[in-house]
Amino acid sequence: MMNKSGIGFIGCGKMAQAIINGIATSKMKSKFKISAFDVDQATLTAACVRFKIKKETSNEAALNNCRIIIIAVKPQSLAAVLEPLKAAVKPGHLFISIVAGASVEKIQSLLGSKCPVVRVMPNTPALVGQGAAGYAFSSEVNADDKKISQDILSTFCKVMVNVPESEINKVTALSGSGPAYVFYFAEAMLEAASRLGFDLKDAKSLIAQTFKGSAELLEKSEDSPAVLRQNVTSKGGTTEKALNVMDSAGLKESFIKAVISAKERADELGK
Q1: Which pLDDT band holds residue 30 (cuts at 50, 70, 90)?
Q2: What is the DSSP string of 113-179?
Q3: How, if at all, do strands 131-137 and 117-121 pair?
Q4: C-alpha to C-alpha distances, 13 to 23, 48, 78, 163, nearest whole angstrom
Q5: What's the half-sphere exposure (Cβ side, CA atoms, 13 Å) at 39?
Q6: At a CB cut-off of 8 Å and minimum separation 6, what does 139 contact?
Q7: Residues 119, 78: Cα–Cα separation, whole Å
Q8: Do the domains 3-164 and 176-270 sit in the same CATH topology, yes or no?
Q9: Which is it for the CA torsion 122, 246, 249, 183, positive or negative?
Q10: Average pLDDT over residues 100-112
């Protein structure tokens, strides 16, 4: 029998576990019973033991037992996972999808029902409770389920932006893939530290705090990123020298093209 306070996870990878951890360590813990299923039994068992949640025997069991279903599988697995569940979808089910590129229309088509769907694009800082996410509601999501969805997102995201579904792939390119861009620059900075003969443990600490502090300054300052950059850049100084090298390599334009290409790939995945 469907548990109206049940949240079932279809897929139990890292992002799903970040969401489970967020719920399990929040005030919502007492309101919901969490369960999960994953074809990787080792991953599933480890997550169920770690978070003290129920281990489902199948995706269909998760659907039968829980009203709220969080879909957290790889895009290429979506059809194989959802199509067999058509007969198990009941009125009252709420589906929250974190599958990149998977439109509401596609999810509803695979489930064979105009069921309420919340499409979410979180990012990996959710693993430490610092996620950012864009989310969109299908027209079938009622006011109560909108509130429940937002409450769930708030357990692992610091910033949540409600957008039209047409904007979700743009969110994917900006913040969904965004941590990889940050880590890419951090990786390069660490490699530079290595070539300079600097202690890598100290360098990592300095780099991490530089990103963290810069992000907080960007968030709290009324100045644009361009002005904040200019504030660091003295005429003829070290920062100007470094930025000139980046500009001569066309780094900024390449980065812009990279973000746009990520959005285009999200569009392709949706097809």
Answers
A1: confident
A2: S---EEEEE--GGGGGT-EEEEEEE-TT--HHHHHHHHHHHHTTEEEEEE--GGGHHHHIIIIISHH
A3: antiparallel
A4: 15, 12, 14, 26
A5: 7
A6: none
A7: 14
A8: no
A9: negative
A10: 93
What residues have CB less than 8 Å from 141, skipping those under 6 apart? 94, 116, 117, 118, 149
Q: In which residue are the tokens 């027209």 written?
A: 139
Token pair 């709420």 is at which residue? Answer: 94
Give 39-63 pLDDT, tens digit per residue.
999 999 999 999 999 999 999 999 9
* 130, 168, 253 from 250: Cα distances, Å: 31, 28, 6
* Residue 9: its H or E element: strand 3-10
DSSP lists the bridge partners of residue 95 as 69, 117
Indicate the CATH number for domain 176-270.
1.10.3730.10
Q: Where are the domains of the chain?
A: 3-164, 176-270
User: Helices marked H in the chain — which ranges?
Assistant: 14-24, 41-51, 59-65, 78-82, 104-111, 143-154, 168-171, 178-195, 200-220, 225-232, 238-248, 251-270
Q: Taking the CB of residue 243, how many other CB atoms lie within 10 A of it?
A: 15
Contact 220, 212 (CB under 8 A): no
pLDDT of 173 > 90? The answer is: yes
Closest alpha carbon to 130 in 51, 69, 46, 216 = 216
Phi, psi angle pair for 135, to nearest 5°: -145, 150
Q: Does domain 3-164 have CATH number 1.10.8.60?
A: no
Q: Report the C-alpha gap between 121 and 173 in whole angstroms.
A: 10
Determine if the pTM surpasses 0.90: no
How far is residue 146 from each of residues 29, 39, 176, measured CA to CA in Å?
18, 29, 21
**The pLDDT of residue 14:** 92
